[in-house]
Amino acid sequence: MPPNPLLLPQPSAVVLAGDWDANTGRACEVLRLASSRGIRVVLQLGDFGFAAENGWGEVFLAAVSRRCVQEDVDVFFVDGNHEDFPELLRLPIDRETGLRQVARRVYHLPRALRWVWHGATWMALGGAHSMDRRDRREGVSWWPDEHLTDADVARAVGAGPVDAIIAHDAPDGIDIPGLWPADSVPASDAAAAQRHRQHVGHVVEQTQPAVLFHGHYHVRYTAVRGHTKVVGLADDSAPLREHCSILDLTR
């Protein structure tokens, strides 16, 4: 059995990165940053860009995989709301590691997957609601699987507390800077987005993480929900300092 790339060896630090949306330049920039700091693990917080329409996702994935090999870095991503879910979910999950390998050195972290680094329990929690759904085509540029299901939530909370969550969506109960005005999106989409945040909030309440990292809202900020620190990272259009964060796991 090959070693679990998420665990062996345990990383002393990781780079967390916001939405990539199949932006090869930004992804490679993050990988160079990780390599330059001697960090071998990048945690990408969804809207990775898996199988984007018009075949661009395949080009992106191949380029990221090549750069991972060159820089000796592994990428682990949670699903966002803009992945091609039928294509992603048809790939098998390794029964030993729980990971879904999508390319050499590139892995998907399925929803509710847990692992332990230096005594701290981490959990992956992908998914979010597409606020721009009206501008997209079902089965082409958005998919119903973007939402957390009741089963996903049950798995996430079923094993008890965690120390850290990497997610795509944010929990409810916090204010996100620059969030779209209520009258700028259809009421049905605003309501669906709020319901999804409530799902994430329920997971936070039940698992009580010290910190939750997420993407999706394209802005870097920090908030507090109960005793959980919530950190949002900006998307690929933002300066690198707003898009990613280096986390020392040994402190």
Automatic annotation (TrEMBL):
InterPro entries, per database record: Calcineurin-like_PHP, Metallo-depent_PP-like
Entry-linked Pfam families: Metallophos
Superkingdom of origin organism: Bacteria
GO molecular function terms listed in the Swiss-Prot or TrEMBL record: hydrolase activity
Calcineurin-like phosphoesterase domain mapped to chain residues: 15-219
Protein name: Calcineurin-like phosphoesterase superfamily domain protein
Species annotation: Mycolicibacterium chlorophenolicum
Lineage, highest ranks first: Bacteria, Bacillati, Actinomycetota, Actinomycetes, Mycobacteriales
